[in-house]
Amino acid sequence: MDTGKPLNGQVAVVTGAGRGIGAAIARKLASMGAAAVLCGRTQSTLDATAQAILQAGGKAEVIPCDVTVLHQWEYVAARVNSTFGRLDIMVNNAGVGRFTEPLHNLVPEDWDRILNTNLRGVYYAIRALAPLMIRGFSGHIINISSLAGKNPVPNGAAYAASKWGLNGLSYSVAEELRGHNIRVSVVCPGSVETELSPHTGKDPKKMLQPDDIAHVVAMLVTQAPQSFASEVLIRPTQKP
Question: Which of 75, 123, 124, 159 is catalytic?
Fold first, then answer.
């Protein structure tokens, strides 16, 4: 065991950890010594991320979870508590979107799917897991938002609404939890090369990569204890 790793002995829950940004974040935190608890809906992709972490000498635990279902979050909390007895880092990354029609043509089922995953799911995660951090008087909550939470997104109004809401939730929860020595940050990337949206006409080589977001998360969880970055905006160096 390398006791020199900055997150050695810590426990990190990452949602949407089966692919893309979530998988990159989980791998990064595990490489820094954390035990990575991988949450998401698809067992096979979570297992693939766990296998990559284990092969690299890290620690990983898979707990399938639909972030829109509260009792599944309560199960995650119970498992984390019984297995590790602590929680140090929570990364709310799971997200969905739709970018094909204006809001007045969007069916209510798609509105519910987007808002329930991107916003309600984060509320459920914090409701279920923050008490573990409060008990330990320490922790980092990092919510992966988007520059769509800062800018208009034609044909993506529901997604933008969910991310604007996530930003407001994050700033407010940060104030609620400061007294418990828990730091809450929101990360707003620009276009990332993932499966979330088509990115029509953009050069994937110029887009942000999942590892770029993982790098920022690593910086946030290793900040000096007297400060925290409440918001990070990430843009590609060259416009894609």
Answer: 159
